[in-house]
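Q: Structure for this?
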Amino acid sequence: MAEFKDSAHLIRLAGVFLLGLVLFLVLRAALIPRSFGRYGPFRGDALAEISARPVAFAGHEVCENCHPDEAALKASGAHKTVKCESCHGPLAKHADDPGTVQPVLPEVAKLCLRCHSKNIAKPAGFPQTEANGSKPCDTCHKPHSPGLKPEGKK
Amino acid sequence: MEGFMYPNEVELQWSILIVLYPFLTGLVAGAFILASLERVFRVEEVKPTYRLALLTALAFLIVAPLPLQLHLGHPERSLEMYLTPHRASAMAMFGFVYLWYLMAVLVVEIWLDYRRDIVRLAQSCRGVKGLLYRVLTLGSYNISPAALRIDDRVGWIITLIGIPSAFLLHGYVGFIFGSVKANPWWSTPLMPVVFLFSAMVSGIALVLLMYLATCAMRRVAVDMRCLDTIAKYLFYTFVIDFSLEMLDLIHRIYEADESFRSLDFMVHTRLFLSQILIQIFLGTLTPLALLSLSQIFTFSVAVRRRIYATSAILTIVGIFAMRWNVVIGGQLFSKSFLGYTTYKMAFVTREGLVPAVALMILPFVILYVLIKVLPPWQEESVVVAEAHGDD
Amino acid sequence: MTLNRRQILLLLPAAAIAWDYVLADNPNGSPNYKMSEHWWGMLIDITKCIGCGSCVRACEMENDVPEGYFRTWIERYHVSDWHIETPEVDSPNGGKEGFLPGKAEGGKNFFVPKMCNHCVDSPCSQVCPVGATFHTPDGVVLVDYDYCLGCRYCIQACPYGCRFFHPKKHTADKCTLCYHRITKGMTTACCEACPTGARQLADLKNPNDPIHSFLKTHSVQVLKPHLATGSKLFYNGLDGSVR
């Protein structure tokens, strides 16, 4: 071992580095989340955590289960592509507990003008109006079937 | 905001702290390259700055992760970079490259170069200081000529490895920006190279200034042969750096792709002060002109010192402006190329001006402590010659 | 067939691994949803969008999106004549409250809803240093809020501007394609709220999904195709001026 007498300090240095490496590997084994790498280079548990978020919108099929009449009326009119919660707002809470949670409809004029106010960027042929809401739209246009009969205003 | 920006783009994501980080690591890389000039390339003249350059590099390297920690939304999770580094991400390399460079290169090289002094101080000092030195010896007190020769040989190898390591330490930062295809101000293969050469320029300028400052503080005469050589290398490196930046600029103007009009407008308005005035005129053309004058003509010692000092200060300001223009500039325009925003720098909050200034002062405080603990200067030149194996 | 003790001891760990593999396909434990059966995208029909902002509001309500930040938004374009490289664009508060009527100055005017493109080769997940933003096996790009460091590199790397820094969570955030809804058989909140059917969730792996026949019969585009991000957000009727 006499040959190494002059490099003994380097061997000590190497020892310090080796110790550091071992410590690092132990730390890694202890701290890396268990589910990491299960589906790819990410923490697998995140998928379940993200999917577990509660929903706010129930989805129109759920509404139509309890309200088939309104659904049928809407399906035959100009609003057939408009889904229930588009106007009535998120109603998952109401669907879960219909008696206690009552949906509140926003002010009629504001609601209709959200889609139908005149705008040059809207597709040609889309019904637009310059009405300002002084006369409530639903005086003549029923929201679930808004089309007017050809002979007049009723 | 001016024009149109995607709604989420109006607020800047990377603040002055992210400007500071490449500036600091650039100084580290540059100071180390200057030190390696002497150690590996046998440029004798710069020997008086060898230890000072290493200590400067260490002081700045210690501070370098701090702006990043302050910037993170969850600094307590930063260990994740060591636990689950995503190998495709250049940023994931930071932890490992930093640790490698700090421990395996800089600390080891400093330890090997200072070992003789550490052993002597361990044997002569008392109290806490003595304990510190005894710990630093790692229990070995062998400073025989044979041991010192081995130290010199190993130190040479470490420095040799250290050069590409320093390139990696700062080059990867350039790659972090250069590889973002979404941002045309950043996306260019030249980015790592430009970052590296501007780093070398700023590091050399810093060591030049530190050398002048420490000579003045120690009331010791400046070794003009050393100073002239440092200035010469500063000049050469600067010429390369300037050529690279000009190449990028000319290329952009010539190709004039879809982003060009928007970027051009941004440079002439939002970045006029920081890019055209500070980075180009004050920070590049002026020092280049001054340094080329000093290379062409012979001036007196006093005039040369003033030219070098002025050039070095302007250079460092210019390189900081360059980092600012890259980081902040890259976020001032919309990726729709239809609008611009402004950077509202905070003042005292986490990512504000005050913490940034504090982080710029901190390395000098650490350097002061390092100089006290590991004095770079030996009054006898004989001792300096011995430590480097009589070459 | 009778098994001796040794055979059972060998089979048990194999069975455990197999069970793990079975469970792995449904992360939320729901037996009806298997990740390997889906590959999610979205279809946006520019010819149908009326810029009402219902999608932006619905997303905000469904996902608690903070004020001033947008997981989805609407842009209005005005293209005067042949100057398709310099359109006039605006997006007042992301289009959340709709748009002002606009000047009758002729030219071409239309709305463009934007959101995360859930790219196959997303630059955002490429640059994340720790794997906090990633691809699910069913093609959705998500952010792990308990793992994200908040370095914001992904926000810089996204060419579409769809990511933002959440001011309360201090992590990156973006559209999740309502992952919590689509894994339960529902559609996304924005598609549910859209009154004209301009937005439609698409399951590219489902042979019965109407997207397949739509792609065969219409000219569809993606945003910034030159960046080759593998965007799964398909637009019908996207004008050349759209950035």
